[in-house]
Write a structure and sequence with these properties.
heterodimer, A: 228 residues, 7 helices, B: 315 residues, six-stranded antiparallel β-sheet
């Protein structure tokens, strides 16, 4: 079952919800929102490869994977900032600096890709493994961070939003974890020997992706409602 | 209250806090002054008597007459009362004999005190003075007027009226104090003024240190009272500050939970103990900024409105 179009639609919704939330709310949400918007970039590029000509370029695909890595880094940074805020009530920095900082990292990544040899399929696979590793391990860390934030703000109107974020990272863990599992064990190469394991991993990956996109969109809509 | 007729006024209604009393008394001494200085205040009355430049007598009686001091104690207490700033000094010149008579009167022994003239058989009283050969003074007073009649061995020596500086033999009936309504009298037995040899209190001790000590005590007392007043003010402010903080925390807790209470604590650091309006305005801004991270504008505005309303009620 090819869910590419469905993924793109839900990721577009999630990205728009996330971005609009970042504009209308406090600075501390900016990193988190921008990170989730970047997933859109990282997911749409590979998913749209068969649909949009030109996106099959290895450099573009490499940039997609790097964007994904940057996304989880920025999201994690955002939740760390929120955790700091929940403990110290200190918030600093400006939204513009976050936007410009992320843009600068992406431009630097693009330059890095352009000045190096054209990525081979092996290189792309390695970059993707790095991306998925970051997502898997940082998702676990983020679940713990969000749990601590929830403990601190549990009687505030926004607290339910953090519960939703824990589900989001649970889905991300399944989605990226399944992909990492397939890549680390080359299950796609040896699927004929482990058909059930491979099929389950692929389903977990696909549905994890779908649930992630839906939950992100839903979480930001919930946050917008809670902060109304 | 010390009832004495006014002599010849030298200085009247002077605030003794504004003058250096030891210096002023030194001038009276060098000028061979004879007369008395009267210090009146709500705390009590002090009388200092000079005789030919010698400070021969000092008496201080508190307003409730619970405190009666003489000599240096009286001078020290008079200085203290003067330095407080609400005393009045009057200086009257007298003849030397009268000054001594005043001294004996102030240290006399009461035979009658505060008797209503209308209730007394005057003739009988005068007969008793004569018969018992009383050496003393009959003091008649009404309102602020006082007259003294001195007796020697039961024989009247003369009168001391307001505005005279010596004992006179005639009484001006038009100025009779005894005829005033509510007139009272005291009868005091006194020592023989002519036999008295009094030491000069200014010769045997320097009044400067007494004055300085009184000033120091007063300044110390004033400083303590000011400190106490400041402390009371600060305590009042602190109480109001803490009450306001607790009120705001309670409201925040009701609107945005425990986290809101912490936010109030944080934002309230912008407010000083005087709870100035501009500080409170900054507090609301800061709280709004912090609360925005956990609550929507509707809840935040409701919380801030209640805070402002409650604070306006406590003002």
């Amino acid at each position: 079952m090819d869910l590419s179009i469905v993924h793109i639609v839900f990721w577009l919704i999630a990205g728009l919800a996330s971005f609009s939330f970042s504009i209308g709310n406090a600075r501390v949400w900016t990193s988190i929102c921008v990170g989730f918007v970047l997933i859109l970039l990282a997911e749409v590029i590979p998913a749209a490869v068969p649909l949009l000509p030109g996106l099959q370029l290895p450099q573009v695909q490499a940039l997609g994977y790097i964007s994904g890595t940057v996304a989880i880094m920025v999201i994690t940074h955002g939740f760390q900032e929120y955790y700091m805020f929940s403990r110290t009530l200190e918030v600093e920095g400006e939204k513009l600096h976050v936007y410009l900082g992320v843009l600068a990292v992406l431009v630097a990544s693009m330059i890095f890709i352009l000045i190096n040899p054209t990525p081979t399929s092996e290189t792309l696979r390695t970059i993707n493994i790095v991306e998925n590793s970051c997502w898997v391990f940082l998702s676990v860390i983020n679940i713990d961070t969000i749990r601590k934030i929830y403990q601190a703000v549990k009687d505030t109107p926004i607290s339910k939003g953090f519960v939703a974020f824990m589900f989001v990272f649970g889905f991300i863990f399944l989605w990226k974890g399944a992909a990492l599992y397939i890549q680390v064990y080359d299950l796609d190469m040896i699927a004929e020997f482990f058909p059930v394991r491979y099929a389950v991993s692929v389903y977990v990956h696909e549905f994890g992706n779908l649930l992630t996109s839906i939950s992100i969109g839903g979480t930001f809509l919930l946050l917008a409602r809670l902060l109304r | 209250m010390i009832f004495l007729p006014r002599g010849i006024p030298v200085r009247e209604k002077v605030n003794p806090a504004r003058i250096n009393l030891p210096e002023a008394m030194g001038k009276l001494r060098s000028g061979s002054f004879t007369g008395y200085l009267r210090f009146d205040s709500s705390a009590g009355t002090g009388v200092v008597i000079f005789e030919r430049g010698k400070l021969v007598s000092a008496l201080y009686i508190s307003a409730d007459e619970s405190e009666r001091l003489i000599a240096y104690d009286a001078i020290a207490r008079t200085f203290e009362v003067s330095i407080l700033g609400n005393a009045t000094l009057n200086i009257f010149r007298l003849a030397p004999e009268l000054a001594m008579g005043i001294h004996t009167l102030l240290h006399g022994h009461y035979l009658y005190r505060g008797q209503d003239l209308q209730l007394v058989n005057i003739e009988g009283l005068l007969r008793r003075i004569k018969d018992e050969q009383i050496n003393g003074c009959l003091r008649v007073y009404a309102e602020e007027k006082v007259v003294l009649i001195f007796y020697d061995q039961g024989n009247a020596l003369g009168f001391f009226h307001d505005g005279t500086d010596d004992i006179v033999n005639t009484a001006d009936l038009s100025k009779s104090v005894a005829r005033l309504s509510g007139a009272k009298f005291d009868l005091l037995e006194t020592a023989y003024a002519r036999d008295l040899v009094l030491a000069d209190l200014m010769a045997s001790a320097d009044l400067g240190p007494i004055w300085q000590r009184a000033r120091k005590l007063l300044l110390e007392d004033r400083r303590k009272r000011e400190e106490q007043a400041i402390r009371s003010l600060e305590e009042g402010q602190e109480l109001r500050y803490q009450h306001t903080r607790m009120l705001l925390k309670t409201i925040a807790g009701n609107h945005i939970g425990k986290f809101g209470v912490s936010q109030v604590d944080k934002a309230f650091s912008l407010v000083g103990p005087e709870l100035r309006a501009e500080e409170l305005a900054n507090f609301y801004l800061e709280l709004h900024r912090l609360a925005k991270l956990v609550a929507g504008p509707k809840k935040i505005n409701a919380m801030l409105d209640e805070m402002k309303h409650q604070l306006s009620l406590t003002d």
